[in-house]
Amino acid sequence: MRLLDSHLHFWRIGGPGQVWPDADWPRIHRDFLPADLRAEAEGYGLIGAVLVQSQPDDRDTDWMLTLDDPLIRAIVTWVDLADGGAPDRIRHLAAQPRVRGVRPMLQGIADTDWILQPALDPAIRALLDTGLRFDALIQPRHLPVLHRFASRWPDLSIVIDHAAKPDIAAGELDPWRDGIAALAQLPNVWCKLSGLRTEQAPEQPVEALRPYVAHLLACFGERLMWGSDWPVLRHAGDSYGTWVETTLELVGPQTPDARDRLVAGAAAAFYNIDV
């Protein structure tokens, strides 16, 4: 098996623009860099990864661009889409060979409808002009809003990070289930099978994830991509290999082609990565 990880992070505590995680996240409050990833993912066929921003700060994005490691096959950056200089910043980033997308961290913005404001249109048009993708870091409250956004910009490739973070700790499937199904009807929307363990309560078994995973598979099919959300997954007590094995157990028997599409092919197609 080969893995193309669609979602992971690197950070250096105290590095440029770094504010999270802090000491309240003891399991991940240390540096995580490519060498740490190689050590933890050894033996699992990792052929590359998409490095995703973790700080809402241009300095963090600029730091990520300095990381020179062959495992980094694509980079998703942060841009302040509401800033008047956003279109120029997007064009600058798009000129960097590994940059494939932008993530504005919508989950941390109190205004659920923020992404719909007309003031962001120049930045969204710049994404379209440059071919960059849009990573949607959202919560269930954003699902109807993202549907309106994705319908308004049908040529913009969008991927839902962490399956929109359903409230697994409370065992809630609805209205998340309907919102996901509606978004999956839009051909420009994809989804990441990642980050679900972090949404569980500490005492919940892995088995509690099964209905969520089944729904994502049924809705998105070939537009569902596996991601580790490493090293954040360590906050839930998982290791890289544990989440790989857990995912394969939850998705159940698959043909070799279907499994390869989930763990490598979908991410390669969405982010235009040559594997």
TrEMBL record:
<dbReference type="GO" id="GO:0016787">
    <property type="term" value="F:hydrolase activity"/>
</dbReference>
<protein>
    <submittedName>
        <fullName>Amidohydrolase</fullName>
    </submittedName>
</protein>
<dbReference type="InterPro" id="IPR052350">
    <property type="entry name" value="Metallo-dep_Lactonases"/>
</dbReference>
<comment type="similarity">
    <text>Belongs to the metallo-dependent hydrolases superfamily.</text>
</comment>
<keyword id="KW-0378">Hydrolase</keyword>
<dbReference type="Pfam" id="PF04909">
    <property type="entry name" value="Amidohydro_2"/>
</dbReference>
<dbReference type="InterPro" id="IPR006680">
    <property type="entry name" value="Amidohydro-rel"/>
</dbReference>
<dbReference type="InterPro" id="IPR032466">
    <property type="entry name" value="Metal_Hydrolase"/>
</dbReference>
<feature type="domain" description="Amidohydrolase-related">
    <location>
        <begin position="5"/>
        <end position="272"/>
    </location>
</feature>
